[in-house]
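Retry 2 of 3 after timeout on previous attempt. Resubmitting structure tokens to design endpoint.
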């Protein structure tokens, strides 16, 4: 029998087209381009890469096609079906069903680079959040690099609640004294940047950087006059990368990366 979290995620992802999320909009394209830039900074030639929460495989399949040895773990059945279909015929990718909370099928200190691109959007209990982080660290080699994706609660508000629903969004994401709330009914949970970084206090890692990957583009893209021409997009990505780690920019990003090295 499915637990509540798994059922919620299966219901949500079976109702949307996750496979086109990173290709069908400028904010998705920016998220993908910036994230891949950071992966390439830390994934050396011949690296063994693990992606936890691989979705339909946009990152894992691209990295496998580049020659990396990739293991792609996905919880949601509908996403895994698409991942397996998209990965057919690619010999150096291994799709598998699994949960970020329990990677017992994977051995300690196995991977050079570990990508956790989604699970922490959907975990609410502190014990579960720490379990997912600890499992990712466990399976990474000493000296290996981990990239954890997370959401800014402030960008979540700006992207989703300027349609007459601000009060509902505020009550869902903040307490009465404006502390960030994490509860299952949110579906997606967002963080204050410092709050997320402090989750790693005392863990056997060295923090390398925190970077935003999509800025406010999701909200801005809804403007009727929004336009970034194809010939301008690569230059826009380069411009954005120059500012991606600026602290004053971070909270304006929907999606961010916490990047660290295992001791």
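Retry 2 succeeded. Sequence:
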């Amino acid at each position: 029998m499915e637990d509540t979290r798994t059922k919620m995620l299966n219901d949500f992802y079976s109702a949307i087209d996750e496979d086109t999320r990173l290709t069908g909009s400028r904010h998705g394209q920016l998220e993908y381009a910036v994230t891949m830039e950071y992966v390439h900074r830390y994934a050396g030639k011949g690296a063994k890469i693990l992606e936890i929460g691989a979705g339909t495989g946009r990152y894992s399949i691209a990295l496998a096609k580049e020659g990396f040895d990739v293991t792609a773990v996905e919880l949601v059945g509908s996403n895994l079906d698409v991942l397996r279909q998209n990965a057919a015929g690619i010999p150096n990718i291994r799709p598998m069903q699994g949960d970020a909370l329990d990677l017992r099928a994977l051995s300690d200190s196995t991977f050079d680079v570990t990508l956790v691109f989604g699970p922490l959007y959907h975990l609410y209990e502190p014990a579960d959040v720490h379990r997912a982080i600890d499992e990712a660290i466990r399976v990474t080699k000493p000296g290996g690099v981990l990239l954890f994706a997370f959401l800014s609660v402030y960008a979540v508000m700006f992207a989703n609640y300027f349609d007459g629903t601000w009060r509902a969004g505020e009550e869902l994401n903040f307490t009465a004294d404006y502390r960030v709330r994490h509860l299952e009914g949110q579906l997606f949970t967002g963080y204050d940047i410092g709050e997320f970084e402090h989750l790693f206090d005392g863990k056997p890692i060295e923090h390398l950087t925190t970077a935003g990957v999509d800025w406010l583009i999701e909200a801005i893209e809804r403007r009727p006059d929004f336009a970034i021409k194809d010939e301008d997009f690569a230059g826009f990505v380069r411009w954005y990368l120059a500012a991606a780690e600026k602290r004053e920019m971070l909270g304006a990003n929907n999606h961010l990366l916490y990047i660290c090295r295992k001791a």
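Attempt log closed. The mean pLDDT is 94.
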